[in-house]
Amino acid sequence: MAARASSKTSESSDKVSVICRALRRAIIEQALEPGAKLPEDALGERFGVSRTIARHALGQLAAEGLVELRRNRIAVVATPSWQEARDAFDIRIELERLVVRQLAGKLTKAQIAELNAHVDAEDRARGGADAVSIRLATEFHILLAHMTNSPILVRYVSEVAYRCCLTLSLYSRPHSTECAINEHRAIIAALAKGDAAKVMELMHHHLDSVANRALVAPTPQRGRDLLDILAPYADEVTSNRVVKLPKIARRG
Amino acid sequence: MAARASSKTSESSDKVSVICRALRRAIIEQALEPGAKLPEDALGERFGVSRTIARHALGQLAAEGLVELRRNRIAVVATPSWQEARDAFDIRIELERLVVRQLAGKLTKAQIAELNAHVDAEDRARGGADAVSIRLATEFHILLAHMTNSPILVRYVSEVAYRCCLTLSLYSRPHSTECAINEHRAIIAALAKGDAAKVMELMHHHLDSVANRALVAPTPQRGRDLLDILAPYADEVTSNRVVKLPKIARRG
DNA sequence: AGCGCTCCAATTGCATGCAGTTTGGCTTCC
DNA sequence: GGAAGCCAAACTGCATGCAATTGGAGCGCT
Question: Is the ipTM of this complex over 0.90?
Fold first, then answer.
């Protein structure tokens, strides 16, 4: 028996949604790096729509955490801090444990075949671009979420998985996908067998190891948050000499 | 020591954000019932902004799942199905277990005082409007999430908690807040004591019992989704007799 | 009465225009 | 040489206007 009755969750075909999808994909495939500027004008022109639409799309992506929006400033691709990346993975672990708990032993043969086919695709993509491997791996997890037929769960898993994608591009060293693929296969097997506890443990370990492999320590230099990086240095300067750095320094 | 360093997570002061907050509150306090229409014009006029802004706000709320947006149709307050409500609570349980796991034993005295103060407020609100009690109870959980200083966690817990609020208004029988307040106090105590396992168990039980108390069985009649209710009948009709229900039925 | 049709008011989808803010370079002055 | 100040270009925030779609009232037909 299927995990649950069918239900639609696809995004509508608004121009806004189209642009959202395009940008989302560009971001997770790292065509747009974290920090990349996203001016409304440029987006509108590129996609052949008005600024209004581009703006709306940016709003949606900001709601998903893929884009940062500051008043009167150009929107940029989100640059999650290391801590945020770690938080995202923690949340993801819990959500995906829930996914496999709901799915264990409840998948149809067809669904299992679909999962296996996806992993086969991941396998074939080995050796190709890292970005593609990462995207496929992410989509495996989203495919799982879809099978719960819980639209809310799908949304949250998708969002947090995309965010994790984003952070992988920031903090990851060259990706090794081999074991990830094997772990995907193990998860499918355990799901088919119906061992909920086992598959939750597998998923937990899988995500945890991906996170640990990727998020290598607080990586001081790639931490990106200039303010944080310079804080200790700034402390030294400001406490010993002057109060304000740029304006009054010349008077001292 | 505080659970983590400070971080800002508040919504900006755009007109859009202001309207979002207003609508969100109206929805969770049931001033706007599920299914209520939200025409852009009316919203814009009411809040003294243009349709553009109202529209954008609706988009954000739709991303949060509080509003349903269908192309070329008037936006309406979301009407989650019973199953979606149950799913939301399942997700919420996992997320909030994570919250208290992170918080156990890491709260400052000031934070504990803040939590106690909030529960006191809940206590004082007893006997008042149900909607207010529910909102305060929800805000207790969001307050907890804030103390993790994980913006992502705050966002997800807030969203899913609001959704649960919404479903409570749909499926709940008259709310009994007494035990919920006691359970909140128990959670604070366990957090202060630092017993992570205990507080996770408490939170799990707390949310589960709220859900079970509220989501009384699939309540066939209040299920609201006419299509679902009629599905079995329609199956019978379409498979045995004719293809379309309204147009051809009269000919049979 | 019941059913279908037509047409109009209501409403959304989207582009454009204008005002206010930020950015970055240029000039000026030390 | 380098910092402060100024100015124009770039960009966002928002309102308004127009075309397209919807839904429902009214009307005629059976």
Answer: no
